[in-house]
Amino acid sequence: MKKKSLFINFLVSIIFGLLLLYFVFQKIDLSVFFARLDSVNYSWIWFSIIISIFEHIIRAFRWNLLMEKDSDSLTTFNTTIVLIVSYFTSLIFPRFNDFVRCYLISKTNTIKLSTSLGTVVSERIIDVLSLIVLAVLLLIIEYEIFVNLLIDIVDKINFYFINVVFIVIVIVIVLYVFKIFLKRSNFINAKFKEFKSGLFAFKDVYYRWDFLLSTFFLWIIYYLMGYVIFFALQETSHLGFNAGLAVLVAGTLGMIVPVNAGIGAYHFLVASILLNYTISYEAGLFFATLIHGSQVVSLILFGFVSSILLFVIIRSKSKKD
Questions:
Q1: Contact 27, 280 (CB under 8 A)
Q2: Which of 45, 56, 203, 316 has CA 20 to 30 A from 231's CA?
Q3: Secondary structure of 161-198 as H, E, C letters
Q4: How does this protein lie in the membrane (predicted)?
Q5: pLDDT tens, 264-298?
Q6: Are residues 25 and 206 in contact, defined by beta-carbon separation less than 8 angstroms?
Q7: Residue ranges per structural domain of the chain
C-alpha cells in the first residue's frame, strides 16, 4: 500500500510538473532556446555548484543546533550527508525529503524520529519567516517589481487552486484522525510529546549568534548561487544586487509548489520577474533553466556520492551497536 501511495505521489507530481513545463515553454522555439547553450560561460555555472556545497553544510550545522539537546552524537559531516541524500530522493519523490532526512538522521544518531520531525517543522517556520523578511526588503527597494510579481502569481492562482485545496483537505483529515488516535493511544501521545519537543527547540537557540549567523549565511549562499550565474550570460551580466534579490524571492516561491524540484513554477516566476529588468522572457527562462538545471545536476552528483558515504556511516554505526 505504501509503495502504491509513493508511486501515485510520484506520478501526480510528474504530470503536474510536465503540465507546468508545457505552460511555461509553449511559445518558446526550443531549437533557438537550446542554441543559447553555446554562448554560456560555464565557469560561472561550476562556481555556483561549488557554492551550493556550503548551503548543505550550513543547513546541516543549523539543524544540529535544533537537535543538540536531544542527541549528543551529532556531527556536521554526517548531517550534511543525510541532507544531501534526502534532497537527492526528493528528485523522485517530492515533499518526502523532510521525512527521509529525519529517518536517516535517526539511523545515524541517537535522536528519535518524531523529535527530528518536530525540528524540521520548526526549521521550515524559520525559513518562511526569513522569506517574509526578504520579501519585505524587496518590497521596500523594488516596490513596482514586487507588485508585478504578486500580479503574476495571482493571474496564475487558478492553475494551482485545485492542488492547494487538495493539500488543505488532506491536512485537515490527517489532523482530525490524529486527534482521535491521540486520545486513545499512549504510544501516539508519547510520540506527539517527542515531536512537540523538537518543534519548540528553536526557543533554546533563536537568540544565539551561531544560529542567527548560520541562518543569515544560508540565505547569502542561496543569493550567490543565483547571482553568479548572471555572469554566465551576456544578457544578464549587467544585473546587480536588486535583480539578484528579486530572483531569490521569486525562485524560492517557485520551489514551494509541490512538484519535483519546483519544475515549471520556478522557471515561470524567475523569468517573469526578470522582465522588469528589461530581460526578455526567453532569456529569463533560459537563465532560470541554467540555475535550476545546474542544481539538479549537482544534487545527482553529490547525492550519488553521499549515498555511498551514508551507507558506510550507517553500517559502521550498526557494527558498533
A1: no
A2: 56
A3: HHHHHHHHHHHHHHHHHHHHHHHHCHHHHHHHHHHHHH
A4: Multi-pass membrane protein
A5: 888 888 998 898 898 998 999 999 999 999 999 99
A6: no
A7: 36-320
